[in-house]
Write a structure and sequence with these properties.
The structure is a single chain. The chain is α/β, with parallel strands linked by helices. It has a single domain, classed as Vaccinia Virus protein VP39 (Rossmann fold), CATH 3.40.50. Helices cover 37% and strands 23% of the residues. It contains eight helices and eight strands. It has an eight-stranded mixed beta sheet. Helix 2 packs across helix 3 and helix 5 runs parallel beside helix 6. The chain is globular.
């Protein structure tokens, strides 16, 4: 972006169509039988994985980037973490705040980009999570860099996204959106999916060390999710910011 202003405003790393898409569904975030049913189903898996690799979330300061309606953020707070959740979809955050009031589980929700927060509060969090978000932003590398900036030395940064290959197109788009109708059509764009090697490279460039890669699988016949070594469709990546 070019500007003749003395202090140019950086371009916001967000796709308005993506924000509108999730804002339109905001009222259904906490309905376990809604379009967000898959997130409710996988949340215990990813929560246990994050808690284990973080050495326990209790008492730690945690940031959830792209928190949406707060499903993961609230569950981490329930474990005793001091959680901040950020998102640019204001309607989703309104639902998150309302549910936090109803549940009595305190989470600090803020409408702010991860890049802006990184500029304001570097090295402020023990653990940073960025789940199911990278495939929805124009510049995922910018998000990775901001997450690396926000975590304290020695802290963990967790990502989850979708691999880009023929299998992921068949399973995540054709299967999930058109055949099983688990997600609204148009939820994902296959060209925005990210290969594990690409995410790992982005993490290394941002100063993060890869710790663990895990795949997430689903059996539609049993409606069962589990973690495995197969990262060909959905996968999670754990990284760590070195102490020095």
């Amino acid at each position: 972006m070019t500007s003749t202003a003395a202090h140019a405003i950086p371009t916001l790393n967000a796709d308005q169509a993506e924000l509108d898409k999730f804002s339109a569904l905001a009222s259904r975030w906490w309905d376990p039988d809604s379009e967000f049913k898959p997130l409710h189903a996988i949340n215990p898996l990813r929560l246990d994985w994050i808690d284990d690799l973080s050495g326990g979330l209790k008492g730690k300061r945690v940031l959830d980037v792209g928190c949406g309606g707060g499903i993961l953020a609230e569950s981490m707070a329930r474990l005793g973490a001091d959680v901040t959740g950020i998102d640019l979809a204001e309607r989703s955050l309104k639902i998150a705040r309302l549910h936090s009031l109803e549940s009595g589980i305190a989470v600090n929700y803020q409408v702010i980009s991860v890049e802006q927060l990184a500029a304001e509060a570097p090295a402020s969090f023990d653990t940073v999570t960025c789940m199911e978000m990278l495939e929805h932003v124009p510049d995922p590398g910018s998000v990775v860099q901001a997450c690396a900036t926000l975590v304290k030395p020695g802290g963990m940064v967790f990502f989850s996204t979708l691999n880009r290959n023929l299998k992921s197109f068949v399973h995540a788009i054709v299967g999930a959106e058109y055949i099983l109708r688990m997600l609204p059509r148009g939820t994902h764009q296959h060209s925005s999916f990210i290969r594990p090697s690409e995410l790992a490279q982005s993490a290394r460039r941002s100063g993060l060390d890869l710790q663990q890669l895990a795949g997430m699988e689903y059996n539609p016949l049993t409606d069962h999710y589990w973690l495995s070594s197969d990262a060909s469709v959905n996968y999670l990546m754990a990284t760590r910011r070195p102490l020095a």
